[in-house]
Write a structure and sequence with these properties.
The chain is mainly alpha-helical. 83% of the residues lie in helices and 0% in strands. Helix 4 packs antiparallel against helix 5.
Length: 157
């Protein structure tokens, strides 16, 4: 879990670095957009929490070696959110120089789907771990905020 989350974080970071100082620096952003330095620490905390949430749910659903984990549907949803999360950053940041504004629209669809999956994970986490549920709520709130930033870039540019 932790390795998968770290890989997504690293991949997102690598696709962001060259573009934050490039096209993104010149783009019109929402007035409520925080300074670029806020994103790294927030995402670091969220990624740690996302890994912890999955571990907690996995542990509660674990029945022993050779047994199917009872939380498997939730864990599958967690994997889906991780894939969507991994797709958003490259599409939004690195996609713009390649395919233009279409990348922002595709990223917007992805982040809305991601938010929907995370909301489903929140509902499911209630059964397994309150801590996992709280972490996923924080993640959903940040995703909702990030969605407004994505939409603002579309609307303002």
């Amino acid at each position: 879990m932790l390795v998968a989350v770290a890989a997504v974080a690293l991949g997102g970071s690598l696709t962001t670095v060259g573009n934050v100082e490039g096209w993104y620096a010149d783009a019109q952003k929402a007035p409520w957009s925080p300074p670029n330095g806020v994103f790294g620490p927030v995402w670091t905390l969220l990624y740690a929490g996302i890994a912890l949430a999955c571990f907690l749910v996995w542990r509660r659903g674990y029945l022993g070696s050779g047994q199917r984990n009872r939380a498997r549907p939730w864990i599958t949803g967690w994997i889906v959110q991780l894939v969507l999360n991994a797709a958003w950053t490259p599409l939004f940041f690195a996609g713009f120089p390649v395919i233009g504004e279409a990348s922002w629209w595709i990223a917007a669809v992805i982040i809305v789907l991601l938010l929907a999956v995370v909301l489903w994970l929140i509902l499911g986490a209630r059964r397994w771990s309150r801590i996992a549920m709280v972490v996923m709520i924080a993640y959903a709130l940040w995703l909702a905020f990030a969605t407004t930033l994505n939409i603002a870039v579309i609307a303002l540019n």
